[in-house]
Design goal:
By secondary structure, the protein is an all-alpha fold. Helix content is 77%, strand content 0%.
């Protein structure tokens, strides 16, 4: 397809091994320092994982609520079913919010 569209394929450019051996002593301390910051960020972001798990489980309240509101209505479960339907409808939005908030938690953890 690149031949027929007239787009030139970029040529590979390799770095010589001498440059790597010269820069390695400077890159290793920087990588160790960045690893420490990343570890703190991951530890802070891990506090958001239980929220995601809770929201994933709450999604199943929607079918449970429908069953309670329909089949359980003669047994007095209609109100509880409506409440569970409401929780199940809101749960995907809460799951998206909790997932998106992992990145700010990671950044805050890195900066502390």
């Amino acid at each position: 397809m690149a031949v027929f569209s007239g787009i030139a394929v970029p040529k590979a450019k390799a770095m010589d091994p001498i440059t790597i051996s010269v820069l390695a002593p400077y890159a290793i301390p920087v990588a160790e320092m960045a690893g420490a910051f990343a570890l703190k960020g991951f530890c802070k972001a891990a506090t958001g994982i239980p929220d995601i798990f809770y929201d994933m489980v709450a999604i199943f309240m929607l079918p449970v609520g429908f069953l309670e509101a329909t089949l359980g209505a003669p047994f007095g479960l209609f109100g509880n079913g409506c409440e569970n339907v409401g929780k199940g409808v809101i749960a995907p939005f809460k799951l998206c919010y909790s997932t998106v908030m992992l990145f700010p938690l990671f950044i805050v953890g890195m900066c502390q």
